[in-house]
Structure formats: structure tokens, C-alpha cells
Specification:
The complex is a heterotrimer of chains A (274), B (346) and C (301). Chain A has a single domain, classed as MetI-like fold. Chain A contains eleven helices and no strands. In chain A, 76% of the residues lie in helices and 0% in strands. Chain A is mostly helical. Chain B has two domains: 230 residues, P-loop containing nucleotide triphosphate hydrolases (Rossmann fold, 3-Layer(aba) Sandwich), CATH 3.40.50; 74 residues, OB fold (Dihydrolipoamide Acetyltransferase, E2P) (Beta Barrel). Helix content of chain B is 28%, strand content 32%. The model of chain B has no long low-confidence stretch (mean pLDDT 89). Chain C is built from 14 helices and two strands, in the order ααββαααααααααααα. In chain C, a hairpin with a 6-residue loop joins strand 1 and strand 2. In chain C, helix 2 crosses helix 14. The radius of gyration of chain C is 24 Å and the shape is flat. Classes of the chains: A mainly alpha (274), B alpha+beta (346), C mainly alpha (301). Chains A and C meet through helix 1, helix 3, helix 4, helix 5 and helix 6 of A and helix 1, helix 2, helix 4, helix 5 and helix 6 of C.
Chain lengths: 274, 346, 301
């Protein structure tokens, strides 16, 4: 941990600082552009500088029933997929943490696979399985697809927290008369709660704007990302798309930010105690 | 339930614990008497901590039985044993304040809140931490955490309290203070204490009886003075305090038997070569090879034969550093009472 | 009662392990690996040219189709793009990762990490969309290019055969910029993690032994950062390989693997061909992962 060496660490050269902060700017400015364009009165092109200023598109977007349906579907899918990921990911993390059995590396590998392989592989694989088994496309086919890659997010967060948790605390709890269930409720859960929160929020954000796998598992249903995707290749409602994109950023930003703050915070306090 | 005074608090019946090939505990028989302060002393890896963990229920014997006041508890989980533990790292719950930590055992047993608060207050008083109830463990010093851990364990009125090197993390001053306090608390609550330590001085200061562990076996069980004055093996003689081990030809000449014996450095008297040994005294001639002045006392290294040195310690009652340092190279006569030797076999 | 149940499980740690492990493993094995398996099976089926129905008989015919010239070009084009994107991402990511790991104060470090990870998790689709706005002919980038009188240079660039196009938003150059942008955080984090693990004392030791800063950088920092680069490249390479959104949004008529798979199974209805085509990225990625594990990249993820 670099905590103490910070006083003596050398200053970065101007070139490095410039490159570093230039890269940060590169990472962030496209999102500001979207905010900017939500106020354009221009319906047919992406003219810059904006030919004027208007806020009417927010109202127009609010009136669109198709958008509301897509938004609701996406929120529902993300909620259910997150719950599934929380349960499965926590179970896997608990199993891997509890014991030293032979297959723990393979489990990490298997869980990582859905995000290490291109999304299209997961998507088309699920598509062939759904087709082969003659399962009709539904809400649940989308959820099942999303859960495959959300599990690993929860798993990683919870496992990392388990590893930072003092194992004797669990022994102490049982020693003081608490059975396994009480120990889970009073000692384990409070300790992993923020990790669950962080993992769950990332899983939610991941599911909420997933498009590649969803394309193959949604059938005729339109999630919000699928709606945006249809606008990408054939733009019909440019101004409304701008508003939707902004809404997606806003909905996902908070959970992501909170999750990152939680994990950054917990690794910071760990640095202090060591 | 009243305990029959003759029933041992803890009884080990040929208990073994193997981790793969490693015999952490190897056929240990042990009885711990109700109400005593019992120490398990030994180097790290000697099996003392494994024994403690098996009594607590964190670990189960590979073979053999453990009895707690006559009841076989070998396979009971920790929460079904009337035993509580003070952990080496205290293992306080970081998300709970001092009060919630201490009340934990009562809470999981569904004791009413009012009752809990009353007991917590008593415990805080016992460990002299009244007024700290609202603090978080992170706001306490090492010594204070230690007391909270103690109070948290004692509030359940366990039949046996286990202490796993609880003083290891404290500095010397605080450690000596806590030794006295722990002993006082044990007298007050009257609970059997089992204390695991690798610090022989700590064990001797506090215990009624000590078991010395080595390589998964118990080398000797006895009172501190037994262990110190009558070590049963060369390991015990070496591990507990400093000791001179004498064997072979010299042993035969002085005691009439080749069996190795141990003699403590402070039991040896340094006299002049012309002294005549009194009856019951064993004497040997030697040359002072080295002198280390240590303030309170002086340590001499005396060669009694080629390659055989004895360590002797004398208090600096009258002598000054000038006197003792000039003794180097002098011929002397060493003597000790024959009752002060201890046969250690071999 | 609960005590009894608890004790029952306490005395059977292996049963508890099995209970924890079964739901996630069942899910991953049945749903995920099962699907991958069905993908594999499908790649050995073929499609009846007349009826357009899937013929469920083992054949290598579909695989043979992959090796026709058009498909070979698609695979080559995609792999080349993935490679270039990976290299450029590593070059851009390094300074920022290096700065975060070795120069930023702990407080600043936390904020910088959040600034890098928020784009990583936030909507991929929206971020692609943002570039459609930026790269549009009448958009902000063109405006700047006009402002600095670089229009001729841009026209020359777009006129280049193979990578040019009618405008930035409809050319391989545009796609390349967006790929680099989208996957950049995936490269920064692993490099930063790897550099973070280089102890400061090692750098001091190196300079103590007489190495100039540039030598220390070349001989100590770069080799130690390498596993991080490899770990990052798993993502940049794999994600580029399978992506179809960016080519569909910003590309021209020349297909990429993901796009081809998407259209084979979608409009073409040829699931076997789509399945066989996906096996390309799968094989490439499995090989890549195996090599990456050799190079110690998994510790940096």
C-alpha cells in the first residue's frame, strides 16, 4: 500500500500529467456532448454549434408510451437479474471462501467466462439453446441471459470482502453462543452488506443497459437499450434519443458511483489498518 | 447444575488432531481441575493452540474424546458448549459498539434488553471500563480492547474461559499490569481459566498449574515451582528459564550416575578454590571464562572441563561492576546442594 | 430448532459447501455451458438451401463455408482491428495508469479510479451514441477541423483506400476511434493494478543501483506492468472481436465478425452459419486466455 511513501514520492513530469488528464478528458467529454444535444432544436441533423436552445424534447419524450414500456421492462429485468446475481454470486463466493477445495480456480474461471468471451458468443449461444428447446421468448429469457454475466460482478465484490473480513469474528460469534444462522445475521451480513450493495448496483447497471446478449434473447420485446440501438442504425427520433441517452446515463450513474465509492472506501480503510 | 468437585473441568482422553501428515496433537491425556488457572505453555506449533481450539469447538479431534465436566463435547459446535474464548486478536465485532459487543452472548440467547444492560454494566465495572459502552472498538486502545474481549466472554458465565495468548499484542508494562488483573478477576469470578502462551514467565507468574507442550505432546504437567525446579525433561529445562544440563563423565563423578541432570544458574554458588564443601553439597573446580554485568545481577560463564561450560548467576548484593569484571580468568570452586538438581533422563 | 439445524450443518462442512456451490454451479453449467454446447452442436448442422430450415445432421459443410473468401476477409479484418485497437489502447492507457499508481496522492488516486471506472460501467450503448453525434459530418469534430483549417488533411485521410469512407461517422477510422474510446477503461484498470503492486522500494533500489529514470522505466516498470497490459488486452481484444453495435452504427458495408453473426442468424436465419462463425472468436479467446494465464495476467484482473 502506498500510504506512507506518499510524502516522498516524486512529482510527475508535466508531460505525464498532461497525458494523464488528457486521457481523462477523452473518457468523459462524450457524455457532456449528449447533455448538450438534448437542448438542440434541430430534428434532422447533429449540427454543431447548436442552432438554438430548447427544452421541449423532455416533454416530448415523456409523452412516448413506447419509451415508458421499454423503460419499465428494462428496470424489471435489471431488478430480477440483480436479485438472482446477488444470491448466486454470494453463494459461490461463500463456497470458494470457506474451503480450499480443488476446483476453486475453475469456478472463478467459469464465472468470469461470460464477461471474458465476447457478448455475442453468450448471446448466440443462448439463442441456439432457446431455439433448440423451443422455449418462447419472454421476460425470463432476458433475465436468464443477464444473470449469466451479472453473477461474476457480485461474486468478485463479495469474495474480496470475505477475504478482508477477520475469520476469527465468525468463530467468536459461535463461541459466544450464536448458531450459524444468528452468526450470519448479526456478524457476516453486516460485514458484507456494503459489498452486496456495491456488487448489486454494478450488476443492476450492467443489466440495465446491456444490449448485445439481449438482442438474442428478447425476441420481439424492446428493452430501453434495444430501443436506442434501433435508433443508432436508423435514426428516426434524434431529439428523443438524446433525451433517452441522458436518462440512461442518469439512471446508471448513481449506482455505479456509489458502488465505486464503496469499494474505493473499503480498500482505503484497509490501507490504514495495515 | 452443581459441579461435583471431583469431576475435572476438562478431560482429554487420548486426544489426537492430525492435519494430513502433521500430528498437531498426538495422544494427549490431560485433566484440568475445576476452578484452577491452567496454562498451556510451549513454542509455536507445539499443539497448545490446537488443544485450545478443540476445547472451544472450532476444531474436532481426529481421535479421542474431550469431556467438559464429565460431558463428552468432542463433536459439539462452539455455541453448544459452556466455554468462552478471549482471542489473540480479540475478534471484537467492528460494526458494534462496546455495549453491543459485550451483550452479544445474551442477545443471541434472547435475554431481555433491560437484563442485558444490567449485566453489561456489571461487566464494564469488572474490567474497569465504565463509561466506554458507546465506543466503537476502533476507538479503543489495545489494552481496552482486551478488556472488552474479556468482558464479552465472561458475561455468559462460562464454565471454562479460554485465553489464546491474549497479552501477546500488548507492550511490556501493560502486559505485566494485565497479568495481575487477569489473576485477580479469575479469583473473583471463580471460573476455570485455560491460558495459552509461549511466554514462560507469564505462565509461571499466573498459573496454578502448567502443561508444557512440545511437538504435539505434553512434556510435563505441574505447578510452576515443579516445572521450574524439577523439569522432567531436557526440553522443559531448556524452555522454562535457563538451565545447565550436565551429563556423561561429569555427572557420574558428581552424582554417581551418568544420567543427565539439570541445575539452575542461580542455585550454583561460586566460592574460592580452597573452600571445603559442606555436607550434601556437590562441588567442581572451574575457571571464569566470561563475565556479563547486568546491573541487578551478573552472569558468569565458567569452564569446568574442556568444552563444558556452566552458566552461573549471582546477585550483585555487595559487588560493583569493577569487582565482578575483574574476576575473569580466576580459578573458582562451584558448589550446589544435591537437592537442587533435577534428573532429566538421557 | 434452528440450533439443531445449525448443528446438523456445522458437523457436515462438506454438505454446506455442496449446498453453497450447487445453485451457482448448476446455473453456470446448465444455462451457460449448456448454451455454449448447443452453440457448438449447431455449428455442425447446416441449412437446407431450398426450405431455409435447419438440417439437424452432423456436417462440416457449414465450417467449409466460413473459409470462403468473403468470410476469411471478415475474420481477418476483425482480428486486425482488434489488434490495432488493443495496441493503441495500451499506449493511451499507460500514462494515466502510471500516474494513478505511482504519482497521485491517496485521495486523488481514489477519485481518479472512480473517474476511470464510472465510464467502464456506464452505458456502452449511450457512449457509442455520443460518438455518432461527435463524428457526424455536421458535428462538433468537423467544426473543430474547419476551425483549424484541417479540412484538406481530413479529406486526404478519408480518401485512403481500406480505411477511408464518406465521412468519419461512416468509416473504419471512425470505428477505430470509437473502439479505442469504448474499451479504454478496461485497459487502464489492469495496468494500474499491476503498477500498484510494484513496490516503491524496487524503484528506489533501481535508481540506487545507478539506473537513470529512463532505464528504471524500461528495465523495471515496463516488465512489471506487462501482465497488466496482457490482462487489459483480454478485454479490449475480445470485446472488439465480438462487437456488432459499433460496426453497425459507424461502419460501411464491409462486415465484421459480430456483424456477420448478427445478420446470419437474424435476417439470414442461418443459425448454423452464425454458430460456426462465433467459434472463431471463441477459439481465439480460449487460446488468448491460456497464453494470458501463462503470462500471469489473471492476477491483475
Amino acid at each position: 500500500m502506498p500510504s506512507k511513501s506518499s510524502d516522498t514520492r516524486p512529482g510527475a513530469s508535466w508531460g505525464l500529467k498532461l497525458a494523464a488528464f488528457g486521457t481523462l478528458l477523452f473518457l468523459h467529454f462524450p457524455m457532456w456532448i449528449i447533455f448538450l444535444y438534448t437542448f438542440t432544436p434541430d430534428e434532422t441533423t447533429y449540427t454543431f454549434p447548436l442552432p438554438g436552445f430548447t427544452t421541449k424534447w423532455f416533454g416530448v419524450a415523456l409523452q412516448r408510451a413506447d419509451l415508458w414500456r421499454s423503460l419499465t421492462l428494462s428496470l424489471q429485468v435489471a431488478t430480477v437479474a440483480t436479485i438472482a446475481a446477488l444470491i448466486l454470486g454470494t453463494f459461490a463466493a461463500a463456497a470458494v471462501y470457506r474451503s480450499n477445495f480443488f476446483g476453486r480456480e475453475s469456478i472463478s474461471f467459469l464465472l468470469l467466462l461470460p464477461i471474458a468471451l465476447p457478448g455475442i458468443v453468450t448471446g448466440i449461444a443462448l439463442r441456439t439453446a432457446i431455439g433448440g428447446l423451443d422455449i418462447p421468448f419472454s421476460f425470463w429469457t432476458i433475465v436468464i441471459g443477464h444473470a449469466t454475466f451479472c453473477v461474476v460482478v457480485v461474486y468478485n465484490n463479495v469474495l474480496a470482502r470475505f477475504r478482508r473480513t477477520n475469520a476469527t469474528m465468525i468463530e467468536a460469534s459461535m463461541d459466544l453462543g450464536a448458531n450459524s444462522f444468528q452468526t450470519f445475521r448479526y456478524v457476516v451480513l453486516p460485514n458484507i452488506a456494503t459489498a452486496l450493495l456495491a456488487g448489486g448496483m454494478l450488476a443492476f447497471a450492467l443489466s440495465f443497459d446491456e444490449v448485445i446478449v439481449t438482442t438474442f434473447t428478447a425476441g420481439q420485446q424492446t428493452t430501453l437499450p434495444i430501443w436506442i440501438f434501433s435508433q443508432l442504425s436508423r435514426p428516426r427520433d434524434r431529439p428523443v434519443t438524446n433525451v433517452v441517452a441522458t436518462i440512461v446515463i442518469l439512471i446508471t450513474f448513481l449506482p455505479i458511483f456509489i458502488a465505486q465509492k464503496i469499494s474505493a472506501g473499503s480498500s482505503e480503510t484497509e490501507g490504514e489498518t495495515k | 447444575m452443581m459441579n461435583n468437585p471431583s469431576t475435572p473441568a476438562i478431560q482429554f482422553d487420548k486426544v489426537s488432531r492430525y492435519f494430513g501428515e502433521v500430528k498437531a496433537v498426538d495422544h494427549v491425556d490431560l485433566e484440568i481441575i475445576d476452578g484452577e488457572f491452567f496454562s498451556m505453555l510451549g513454542p509455536s506449533g507445539s499443539g497448545k493452540t490446537t488443544c485450545l481450539r478443540m476445547i472451544a469447538g472450532f476444531d474436532r479431534p481426529t481421535s479421542g474424546k474431550i469431556h467438559l465436566y464429565g460431558q463428552d463435547v468432542s463433536s459439539l459446535p462452539p455455541y453448544e458448549r459452556d466455554v468462552n474464548t478471549v482471542f489473540q486478536d480479540y475478534a471484537l465485532f467492528p460494526h458494534m459498539n462496546v455495549e453491543a459487543n459485550i451483550a452479544y452472548g445474551l442477545m443471541v440467547k434472547n435475554v431481555a434488553r433491560q437484563e442485558r444492560t444490567k449485566h453489561v454494566d456489571e461487566m464494564l465495572e469488572l474490567v474497569r471500563l465504565s463509561g466506554f459502552a458507546g465506543r466503537k472498538p476502533s476507538q479503543l486502545s489495545g489494552g481496552q480492547r482486551q478488556r472488552v474481549a474479556l468482558a464479552r466472554a465472561l458475561i455468559n458465565h462460562p464454565k471454562v474461559l479460554l485465553l489464546d495468548e491474549p497479552l501477546g499484542a500488548l507492550d511490556l508494562k501493560l502486559r505485566q499490569q494485565m497479568q495481575i488483573e487477569l489473576k485477580a478477576i479469575q479469583k473473583r469470578v471463580g471460573i476455570t481459566f485455560i491460558f495459552v502462551t509461549h511466554d514462560q514467565e507469564e505462565a509461571i507468574t499466573m498459573s496454578d498449574r502448567i502443561a508444557v507442550f512440545n511437538q504435539g505432546k505434553i512434556e510435563q504437567i505441574g505447578s510452576p515451582s515443579d516445572i521450574y525446579e524439577r523439569p522432567a525433561s531436557s526440553f522443559v529445562a531448556g524452555f522454562v528459564g535457563t538451565s545447565n544440563l550436565v551429563g556423561g563423565e561429569i555427572a557420574k563423578r558428581t552424582t554417581g550416575s551418568e544420567q543427565t541432570f539439570s541445575i539452575r544458574p542461580e542455585k550454583i554458588h561460586i566460592g574460592s578454590v580452597s573452600d571445603n564443601p559442606a555436607s550434601g553439597m556437590i562441588s567442581l573446580d572451574g575457571v571464569i571464562r566470561d563475565v556479563v554485568y547486568l546491573g541487578l545481577f551478573t552472569r558468569y560463564l565458567i569452564e569446568i572441563e574442556d568444552g563444558v561450560d556452566l552458566v552461573v548467576v549471582e546477585q550483585n548484593l555487595k559487588s560493583t561492576s569493577m569487582d565482578v569484571l575483574s574476576a575473569k580468568g580466576q580459578k573458582v570452586k562451584l558448589s550446589w546442594h544435591q537437592d537442587h538438581i533435577s534428573r532429566v533422563g538421557g | 430448532m434452528l440450533n439443531r439445524i445449525s448443528t446438523y450443518f456445522y458437523q457436515r462442512p462438506k454438505l454446506v459447501l455442496a449446498l453453497f456451490l450447487t445453485p451457482p454451479m448448476l446455473y453456470m453449467l446448465v444455462v451457460y455451458l449448456g448454451s455454449l454446447f448447443s452453440l457448438l452442436i449447431n455449428s455442425f448442422y447446416s441449412i437446407d438451401d431450398f426450405t431455409g430450415m435447419i438440417v439437424r445432421e452432423f456436417t462440416m459443410r457449414t465450417y467449409a463455408q466460413i473459409f470462403n473468401i468473403a468470410n476469411r476477409e471478415i475474420v481477418f479484418r476483425t482480428a486486425a482491428m482488434a489488434l490495432v485497437v488493443t495496441i493503441v489502447d495500451a499506449l493511451i492507457a499507460f500514462p494515466l495508469a502510471y500516474y494513478i499508481a505511482k504519482f497521485a496522492s491517496p485521495r486523488l488516486r481514489t477519485w481518479l479510479l472512480i473517474a476511470v471506472t464510472v465510464p467502464l460501467w456506464s452505458s456502452y450503448l449511450v457512449r457509442v451514441y455520443a460518438w455518432k453525434l461527435i463524428l457526424a459530418k455536421e458535428g462538433i469534430l468537423s467544426w473543430f477541423i474547419h476551425l483549424f483549417n484541417l479540412t484538406d488533411a481530413l479529406d486526404w485521410l478519408l480518401g485512403l483506400p481500406g480505411i477511408g469512407g464518406s465521412s468519419l461517422s461512416l468509416s473504419p477510422i471512425g470505428m477505430f476511434i470509437v473502439f479505442v474510446y469504448i474499451w479504454l477503461p478496461y485497459m487502464i484498470i489492469p495496468i494500474q493494478t499491476a503498477l500498484e503492486r510494484v513496490p516503491g522500494s524496487l524503484l528506489e533500489a533501481s535508481s540506487d543501483l545507478g539506473a537513470r529514470p529512463s532505464q528504471t522505466f524500461r528495465t523495471v516498470i515496463l516488465p512489471l506492468a506487462f501482465p497488466g497490459v496482457v490482462a487489459g488486452s483480454i478485454f479490449t481484444f475480445s470485446l472488439t472481436l465480438g462487437d456488432f453495435i459499433i460496426p453497425l452504427t459507424l461502419g460501411n458495408s464491409k462486415f465484421f465478425i459480430g456483424q456477420a453473426v448478427y445478420s446470419y442468424q437474424g435476417t439470414g436465419g442461418n443459425v448454423p452459419l452464425a454458430a460456426a462463425m462465433t467459434m472463431g472468436p471463441v477459439v481465439i479467446m480460449v487460446l488468448y486466455l491460456l497464453i494470458a494465464r501463462r503470462l500471469g495476467a489473471f492476477d491483475a484482473i
